[in-house]
Design brief:
Length: 182
């Protein structure tokens, strides 16, 4: 059976750790190798396979095309091309971006999830934090996010948990796609 291919967008404010998360979930790096952030210029595409997902009682493999997008608004003119054909969106923010995160997450959600008519189940918000900063209440997110899965993640102490949360998100995206196609 041919694996399903998914285009997943990862976007959020600059310096929220998107590239480190993308590298980790694609097995490009180990947790110990998480490095100092370097700004992504535009977009970086990471491709990898996620095997053995249980979708509606069937085991499936999925090829992931993870688009790690810059949080810098000077690349906003690229957004229409980025969202073309997108099937899932990962919004990422961190405590150091919490002051701007609520407004920014709303803007990104509207553009990348609402406008292309994706379901809230095709979106997840990763709050990238350290062990002493796992309180997401400081985000003050709008009611728009009441149906969006929100997950506090920590690459240093909860890497395996992040992979489980990512696989759950991909399963949710696949279920929504299968539901729309039936």
């Amino acid at each position: 059976m041919q694996p399903t291919k998914l285009k997943i967008l990862m976007i959020g404010p600059s310096e929220s750790g998107k590239s480190s998360i993308a590298n980790f979930i694609s097995d490009s790096i180990n947790v110990e190798e998480v490095e100092t952030p370097r700004p992504t210029q535009g977009v970086r595409i990471v491709e990898f396979e996620l095997p053995n997902l249980n979708v509606n009682g069937k085991s499936t493999s999925t090829d992931i095309e993870l688009w790690d997008c810059s949080g810098d608004h000077r690349f906003e003119s690229c957004w229409p091309a980025l969202r073309l054909g997108v099937q899932g969106v990962i919004l990422v923010c961190a405590p150091n971006t919490a002051q701007i995160a609520a407004r920014e997450m709303e803007l990104l959600y509207n553009y990348f999830v609402s406008q292309p008519k994706l379901s809230a189940k095709q979106c997840v918000l990763f709050y990238n934090c350290t062990e002493d900063q796992e309180d997401m209440d400081s985000l003050n997110l709008s009611p728009t996010f009441s149906k969006v899965s929100q997950v506090a993640i920590n690459l240093k102490t909860g890497g395996s948990r992040l992979k489980i949360d990512f696989a759950s998100f991909i399963t949710s995206v696949l279920q929504m796609i299968n539901k729309d196609n039936s």
